[in-house]
Amino acid sequence: MSLNPRLVKESFALIEPVADKAAAYFYGRLFAENPHLRGMFPPAMDVQRDRLFGALTRIVWSLDSPDGLAAFLGQLGRDHRKYGVVAEHYTAIGNALLATVRRFAAEVWDAEIEAAWVTAYTAAANIMIESADADAGVSPAWWLAEVIGHERRTPDIAVITLRLDRDLPYLPGQYVTVQTARWPRVWRTFSIANAPRGDRTIRLHVRAVPGGWVSTALVEHTRIGDTVMLGPALGTMTPADSGRDILCVAGGTGLAPIKAIVEHVIGSGLRPAVHLLYGARRACELYDLTDLIRMESAFPWLRVLPVVSEQPGYDGVRGRLTEVMERLRSWAGHDVYVCGPAAMVDDAVRRLQRNGVPLTDIRRDVVHGEP
Ligand SMILES: NC(=O)C1=CN([C@@H]2O[C@H](COP(=O)(O)OP(=O)(O)OC[C@H]3O[C@@H](n4cnc5c(N)ncnc54)[C@H](OP(=O)(O)O)[C@@H]3O)[C@@H](O)[C@H]2O)C=CC1
Predict the structure, then answer these.
(1) Atom 13 (ligand 1) nearest CA
(2) pLDDT tens, 20-38?
(3) Which residues form the Globin domain (predicted)?
(4) Closest protein CA for atom 24 of ligand 1
(5) Is the pLDDT of residue 365 over 90?
(6) Atom of ligand 1 nearest to the CA of 257
(7) 11-20, long-range: CB within 8 Å, 24+ apart, which pairs?
(8) Which of 92-96, 243-247, 283-287, 366-370 is the least confident region?
(9) 283 vs 1 pLDDT, higher one
(10) Which residues does ligand 1 sit against, CB inside 6 Å?
(11) Could you tell me the pLDDT band of residue 206, with boundaries at 50, 70 and 90?
């Protein structure tokens, strides 16, 4: 049976408005039929439910773009090795998923739609399984890392240096998932804030989010000598290396992957003009400015512009980061990297496009921090 994206999308559209209920039903069904799988998931399932629907939504709406979808599923398959997921688990998950869509799209459900879902799920699961199998031959499922540096730059933000037990291949701009001893099986994503160094050290920029389990554990309860677990590097916001001039827009700790990219440009020998716009609400939250100014003074082609949005007395550039970006000049012809709060990223992309920067010149990743 060939793939029928239209039937899958039409039935999925009925489930999206009741995503919470459908995700709860899915996990209820999965664990009722396979109680042994419960131990693979974290005790609190709220973030897990959002992730499931986030991934499912992306897969369903990308069914018409097989290349992008295959790359996403390949990453997902590799990343799932760290949970101990093996081929048999995909059958259990497929059965629970089918039962869920059958129930929540009951008003349109028929044999043809069922066949379309089975075909789509089988194809997606096969890509994930094949990618995980291929990765198993060349790479560990997870890494251990020792905390060798912990700098509290603000009450909420820490810059953490880790030394990995083995090489972790990654490209500048990518992110990893992190699990702390305090919260077993709870994984959160953080960007690697440095270009690869060859000494197995990486840096993370972490803001403790209220109610955020992993971010709070990392900022407030982690000490030098502690160990954390990391998953493989993921993400597509990697350097274009085109030699063209570069605009980087970083909001808050969204600076992390941008800094890795700037370090990469420094090491590449290419000397494009790089503008780095770095935004925070208050000057005291520009937690990495000292280091950026040091880089700026060493490399005359790098311009760092801090922007503060909520501090009337601040005597530097004030305003919304994205508005300042738009006012400053035209960015057409630049390679652009944008990272920060999702709404800021969307706003930046909208403004850039409006001012003649094509989407293909803009790189960004959706890195889900803590809720
Ligand atoms: N730690 C990491 O490794 C990474 C983090 N991220 C993400 O980056 C984000 C960083 O958050 P945080 O450090 O709390 O940043 P903040 O919430 O402190 O925001 C940083 C800057 O972005 C501006 N901003 C926020 N929303 C908008 C908007 N809609 N339009 C224009 N400007 C906006 C803020 O100004 P104002 O709100 O006043 O307009 C502020 O100047 C998180 O969402 C995190 O998930 C992404 C990649 C890596």
Answers:
(1) 252
(2) 999 999 999 999 999 999 9
(3) 1-133
(4) 344
(5) no
(6) 48
(7) 11/101, 11/105, 11/108, 11/109, 11/113, 11/116, 11/117, 12/56, 12/57, 12/60, 12/101, 12/105, 14/104, 14/105, 14/107, 14/108, 15/100, 15/101, 15/104, 15/105, 16/57, 18/104, 19/53, 20/49
(8) 366-370
(9) 283
(10) 190-191, 205-207, 251-254, 256-257, 279-281, 309-310, 320-322, 339-341, 343-344, 347, 367, 369
(11) very high
Same domain for 126 and 10: yes
Mean pLDDT of 348-355: 97
Residue 368 lies inside a defined structural domain of this protein: no
| CATH number, domain with residue 201 | 2.40.30.10
**Residue among 309, 325, 326, 345 to mutate when testing ligand 1 (max atoms within 8 A of CB):** 309
Closest CA to 302 of 330, 338, 264: 264
Give the model confidence (pLDDT) of 116-171 as tens digits.
999 999 999 999 999 999 999 899 999 999 999 999 999 999 999 999 999 999 99
Which CATH number characterizes residue 86's domain?
1.10.490.10
Distance 107 CA to ligand 1 centre (A): 41
Question: Are both 291 and 353 inside the same structural domain?
Answer: yes
Of 232, 234, 206, the closest CA to residue 220 belongs to: 206
Domain assignment of residue 119, yes or no: yes
pLDDT tens-digit map of 41-52 = 888 888 878 888
Structure tokens at 146: 């020792």
Most informative mutation of 259, 344, 346, 370 for ligand 1 (most atoms within 8 A of CB): 344
Three-class secondary structure of residue 52 per DSSP: helix
Pocket test for ligand 1, best of 258, 367, 368, 370 (most atoms within 8 A of CB): 367
